[in-house]
Amino acid sequence: MQLPRYDHYTDESKTIFEFVSIGPKGCIRKLVEYVDTGNGNLYNLGFGDISKDDGRIDDRIVSNNGDTQKVLATVAATVDEFTSNHPQAIIFATGSTHARTRLYRIGIHGHLLEIQHKFVIFGYCKINYWEEFAKGKDYLAFLLTRRENQQTLWQRLQILNQMNQTEE
Fold this sequence. Notes:
globular, 9 strands, alpha+beta
């Protein structure tokens, strides 16, 4: 995406990214981490402020630094870089609160056509199934992968959807 974003720094594995949000509340260190779940190239996207206490991600804090769009564009840039280095990766993302998940959904919605050039996104619905992301729907979580992995991911999600139906 060609949106303003912050410069970010990463480790050798390209799984941890750091950047600094700059705004009215000062300079706030942010961290994006892709954690391998051990489940077939599935990674959890962790994102938040770096805690001053222990250096870990605090995904509950509300920074209100006036740069939400720039921060989200920076996180999106890390997704692109991460999947360039891990091309089979499937990224799971959800907000730490319903409001944060809604913010991510709005961001995806606003840039969906551009995102779909490289990626496919699925949303998890409240009625226990995965579907390809559709505008105007409320999702609890998201899965994203590069376009070339779409068929593989969709097959896995159909199995999960069938399992969810038999459990109901």
